[in-house]
Design brief:
The protein is α/β, with parallel strands linked by helices. The chain has two domains: 26-127 and 250-274, Response regulator (Rossmann fold); 131-247 and 279-307, 3-Layer(aba) Sandwich (Rossmann fold), CATH 3.40.50. It is 41% helix and 19% strand. The chain has helices spanning 2-19, 38-53, 69-80, 90-99, 131-141, 154-170, 186-193, 212-224, 249-264, 285-291, and strands at 27-32, 57-62, 84-88, 105-108, 122-125, 147-152, 174-179, 199-202, 229-231, 243-247, 273-274, 279-284, 305-307. The strands form two sheets. It has a seven-stranded mixed sheet with strand order 7-6-8-9-10-12-13. The chain has a six-stranded parallel sheet with strand order 2-1-3-4-5-11, sandwiched between helices. α4 (90-99) links the parallel β3 and β4 (105-108). α5 (131-141) crosses α6.
Length: 311
């Protein structure tokens, strides 16, 4: 009798544990475009820290480690049945969207996310800060700048450029935008645009930034006409950008994890894409000095990294 009573108690306790929230932890599948890339690895690391703090389990799938990534990812999803798939980078999202469109998908570190195939149950953290944030910081660093130029492709970036123009106008800055159909038009477009502007702004347009040669062409032309270049990422600093205001990688990872927890609990609407919550400001003092460009000295307190000339 005692054994039977003990078994009944165990059954009742197990039912209580499940009903009280002690069920199997939710599992998230992390799909990384390339975990060897520093920025992707940093984001993934911070994302996992938050999951661990909230008793979530996860499985990782790195595209660069699988010969037949599509078939293997599809099989893994069937085996693990995750509550959500977190995609780091454009390649990861595109593949996950193709093989698991019925799953909740969350992305980050995707260049120009507006061109992605966004479906129901998709969420994300944008790769760039809001244009209002960037323009405010530009105005703070360079209060005398009046005309800023940029190249873009209408198909991918029209809405974003319209937002930039609206936000800039509110601060008294004129945006002169030059549309291009393909990268072959960059040279002629720059010859027309650069004489009209005080600064060139590189946005994350996939046509403008279609190759390293396109990026080099932009900086060579800007240097020849002594025009400073502002960029959305510090990867352009070594090319000669005077200022880069990029989303902070660690913050993107933590923010993505917080969004994942909210999505799992159905606390955010479908289609939600958040702007990055943190930024990193890199100032190229060497390029500034070469152009003899004046900037607000008080703004130095907002700089995370200053690049000096090599001695």
């Amino acid at each position: 009798m005692k054994i039977m009573e003990f078994c009944k108690v165990l059954i009742l306790l197990s039912v209580f544990w499940v009903s009280a929230g002690f069920a199997q932890p939710s599992k998230v599948l992390i799909v990384n475009s390339d975990n060897a890339v520093f920025r992707y690895g940093t984001i993934a690391s911070e994302f996992k820290k938050v999951l661990q703090q909230n008793a979530y389990q996860w499985t990782e799938f790195n595209l660069n480690s699988h010969a037949d990534a599509e078939a293997e990812l599809k099989q893994l999803i069937q085996q693990e049945n995750p509550v959500l798939i977190y995609c780091i980078g454009t390649k990861a999202y595109s593949l996950a969207r193709n093989v698991a469109s019925n799953k909740k998908l969350l992305f980050s570190a995707a260049i120009n996310w507006r061109r992605l195939d966004i479906g129901e149950g998709t969420y994300g953290v944008a790769n760039e800060l809001s244009s209002a944030q960037e323009i405010s910081l530009l105005r703070y660093f360079f209060p005398t700048i009046k005309n800023i130029g940029l190249l873009y492709n209408d198909k991918f970036s029209r809405e974003y450029v319209e937002t930039i123009k609206k936000d800039a106008s509110a601060l008294g800055i004129n945006i002169i935008n030059q549309p291009i159909n393909d990268a072959q038009e960059i040279g002629d477009a720059l010859n027309e645009l650069l004489p009209k502007i005080d600064m060139f702004w590189i946005i994350s347009d996939p046509v403008v930034l279609s190759s390293k040669a396109s990026v080099q062409q932009i900086f060579q032309s800007a240097q020849q006409q002594k025009k400073p270049v502002y960029a959305y990422s510090d990867v352009f600093i070594e090319q000669g950008a005077v200022l880069a205001i990029s989303a902070d990688l660690a913050t993107i990872g933590r923010q993505s994890a917080s969004l994942a927890l909210m999505v799992d609990k159905d606390k955010v609407p479908e289609g939600t894409v958040q702007n990055p919550a943190g930024s990193t400001v890199t100032l190229n003092k060497c390029a500034l000095d070469a152009l003899r460009l004046n900037f607000n000295q008080d703004a130095l307190d907002s700089v995370n990294k200053i690049v000096e000339c090599d001695k």
